[in-house]
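Readers of this paper often ask what the protein records in our data store actually look like. The remainder of this section carries one protein's record, kept here as part of the documentation.

:::
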Amino acid sequence: TDESWNKGTHLENLRSAMSGNMDRRRQARSQRNAEELAFEKSIQGVRSLRWKAAKIWRSVRKRLTEIRYRLTLWRDPIKDIEGRYGSGVGSFFRLVRWLLFLNIFITLLMFIMVYLPQKSSGELTETTKLKNNTVDSAWYSHIQAFFSGVGFMENTELFYGVYTEKNIGGYDFPFVYLLAVGAVLLGCFLILLYSMGISSIKSFDDRKEISKARSGYSYFHQAFGGWEFSISETRTAKLRACAISTDFEEEVRTQTAVLMKRTRREMLKLYPFRVLTSSVVLMFYSACGISIYYAFTSVTEDAIYEKDIKSNETLSYNESVDLFFREMAATLTISAYCLFLPPLFELIAKFEKWRVPQVEYQITLIRTYILKMGSVTSLIIYTFTKVKPCQEATCARPCWETFAGQKIYQVMVVTFIVMIIKDLIYDTLVRKVREKSQYLKDRTNQFEFEIASNVLEVQYAQAIVWLGFYYAPLISVGMVFFLFGMFYVKKFTLFRNTAPPTKIFRSDRRNFVFQTLLLVTLVLSLLPIGYTITGLQPSPLCGPFRDKKNPYSIIPEIIDDSPPVTREILGFIGSPGFIVPAFFVLVIFIIRLIVTIKTLQKRLKLHKTVIVQDEGNQQFLKAKMQRMDKTFNKIRNSDHMSELNPLIRV
């Protein structure tokens, strides 16, 4: 028939076009190689050497790129995860790998600038010398010391108290210690900004914005651009189809919520209820703070005082365990709240009846983020309230900086233990019970791998490092092992115990959001560290700043001891003659940057409008061609044109 003949002709034309494209590509490649060879022969002297050097460099760079790709840490596991569960889940594991390298960077800085000079000097503080004789030698005491940071752990370079205040071979150690802290913070800040810029460039995709700009095509992007082509399993493909369907439902709910406004009577009922739920959340925050304060000031303080009294006695196993858990009461309280309150926040958000599902989800995440950051920050603040100068090394707390570092170290250790118990033990038991019970299978769903909650968990762990590396310079070493173990624990629970998330996460945009939250976390972590450096008196018996009013006071001393030219330059930089013009230059630069951004936004909007108009013209031309085809078919099938059919076919 005519239809089958037309289809066959179309396929033949398509095959010939594809083969023709391949032939043209081969010809273009051969022509390019011939032109490069002719050009190489035509040049001489320095140009020839530069050309050969550039060619060799391109080859070496390509080979190095291939080697780096092959040596990428966890390359195959992450590809396997993305193939089974999509790039959204893979973005979490990429974030874990990125943070692992960031903590290796922190570790290298502190190791080179702080640990190696201290180790080479062999100096011990007065506190360390006296406490070396009071370390319990029982086996269970060593285990408890490892998990709590006391005992023999207190006398290691992990904590602030053992570092010397003396110069090491012309090496001004106190200044270098402060410089290392600033280098870590500045380095992390610049790395985060650079990574955010890269993620922002990768996440830029205005196809969805263009599809939304066209009336009647609001679901175009989700239907034709929401599929994960990296998926390689049938089960995951079905789940991805369900996820796209869920995304359509949420989009419909969002559009309906925007179009259907609630009545004033409904709003009068809803707003007081939301105020009530917000008050309940604030009550939970208050209860968390009060509980941490009570656990810290009553239980932990009493345990430390009792342990100090019995320091010359040999404690029994039961007494040692009792003191151990009482010392860690505040840390265990924080971990308990961070474990049980987030599901309760999710339940509260469902009762608040938010019209847009994304708002409900974001409200839960914000509340969880405030809980986790506030709890660990409150522990540091409570430590500040106990800062009292101790003039004797035999007192209960001769070095409050080491005490703060121990508390943060305990939070990191307990967080890792809780993660193992929850992901490896609890989730595995729930999965096995559900598999053996048909009743539970029919009425319950398998746990989903919540990307956002897991990201908050790893960001919480990173916040512990940023809050604690001043008081425990090598805490990032523990974080490296923490992240390494987290990767395999999360991978195990993903493959064995959880289902892929039903919510669609675009990895490129989520990476930018995750790194933005990390930047906010870093800025918040600067507050207690800055207050410690500028506003608190260091312990007089330990640490590199023991004889200073505050750690920052060494900066004016270094300026006073510097050469006259340096003092004049630094004095001019700190004078109003430099600060005021620099401020105005900075303001002008910011205004120019804002104007440039506005201009680019207008250009982008104009380009989007042009693209939409071009697509509208294409639709118009396509409809016109379809009408012409119909008219042509009518003419061809008419009686007076039947004798021309063979010619038309040709």
Summary: The chain has 23 helices and no strands. The two ends are 15 Å apart (CA to CA).
